[in-house]
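Example 4.3 (complexes with small molecules)
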Amino acid sequence: MPELFNDARQRLQQAIAHANLSEDAIASLQSPKTCLQVSIPVRMDNGTLKVFQGYRVIYDHTRGPGKGGVRYHPDVSLDEVKSLAFWMTFKCALLNLPFGGAKGGVTVDPKALSRMELERLSRGYIDAIADFIGPDIDIPAPDVYTNPMMMGWMMDQYSLIRRQICRGVVTGKPIALGGSLGRDTATAMGAFSVINATLPKLGRVAAETTVAIQGFGNAGAVLAGLLFEAGYRIVAVSDSQGGIYAPIGLDIPSVRQYKEASRSVQAVYCQGSVCSIVEHQAISNPELLTLDVDVLVPAALENQITAENADQVRAKYIFEVANGPITSAADEILAKKGIQVFPDILVNAGGVTVSYFEWVQNRSGLYWSLAEVNQRLQTSMLAETEAILAIASQKAISLRTAAYVQALTRLGEAIAAKGTRDYYVNHSDGKA
Ligand code: NAD
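Answer. The structure with nicotinamide-adenine-dinucleotide bound is encoded below.
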């Protein structure tokens, strides 16, 4: 497996060739601004002390404070957090949000911890990074295996440290603690806007479009529900333990209900009445990725489609809801096969867009209706989708490269506004 960060950076090199960027901007964007590694001591329920490793990376803050989620997962590493912060930088610029890119994580299996241990870990993480975050410095949010409750603990802990209520320091909070309506569904809603706007342009009708979704969490399960309601045929879904496949289409509300009750897509599906309505079979995550479907949605983790399995992918379109699910080597194989990939920094940008709305609402003290949040979200997602489609077609480049070109243009303008070599060296007007 290629080192994630080096692989992520390859996308930057490809896009630089198509963007009109100063040398300064290119140099500035090659490496993260700050990488923080912390040890978090947590008193466990049985009285022992465990020390967890945590990270916070700000990749770039030219366009505003850092912004990015916090991941709790056993595989969290500095390499992964750096890559996620890198993607956040381009995602925020692509959606024209006044933020830089950041990300955090703790190397932990959260399923092995009690709720009280998770609270102590979340508060301990904030204790460790409190000097490096803030509403105008860097603003965490949820990511894989972190949720609104944890964001509430984090905001509360930061407020205790600062001795003032600081709602704008964390987004994705519970509504009662200053969260935004629509944040819980934002990533899926944004992805749905992109999918449902582009597929008809490609001649596809919802009822005749089959979809497989890998990952059934905040992003994947909500998206499955939205696509199901819009008439798409969801033939396969999965979670970390495996998946289910029904060629005639799954009843997504039932799957969600059972998953919520038992925490496993595969284990519970046959316990309810759904089995008798829809015949289905158990499949593994690797099998799901190679199903003969129209649309494949990776919505779990990075590095799922690689040089090893890209050749077996049979979907016509891939919408990346997860961050970094396709390696750069796999990108080339998929392109040769004529599979169109809609990139993560566009497709999953709904989450950070509504996080931005939450931050704005926290700072203004004026809260918006769900309809207003969703309307603003849809307007942003559709505008950037159109822009990327136009750039890709004008420059005859992939949608991913087009998305990076659009983001790089905005980042380049911000870096240039602070002065570049051209400004300092090539102007000899003698004035300061
Ligand atoms: P989540 O914790 O709510 O759900 C993760 C899902 O992935 C779960 O269903 C889990 O069982 C499944 N999963 C874990 N390991 C897996 C594996 N090896 N194979 C298959 N499935 C596996 O997380 P989420 O918020 O839904 O995030 C999913 C992806 O979307 C991540 O890449 C995340 O970075 C990205 N994303 C999330 C948001 C957001 O707002 N939540 C925003 C942008 C991007």
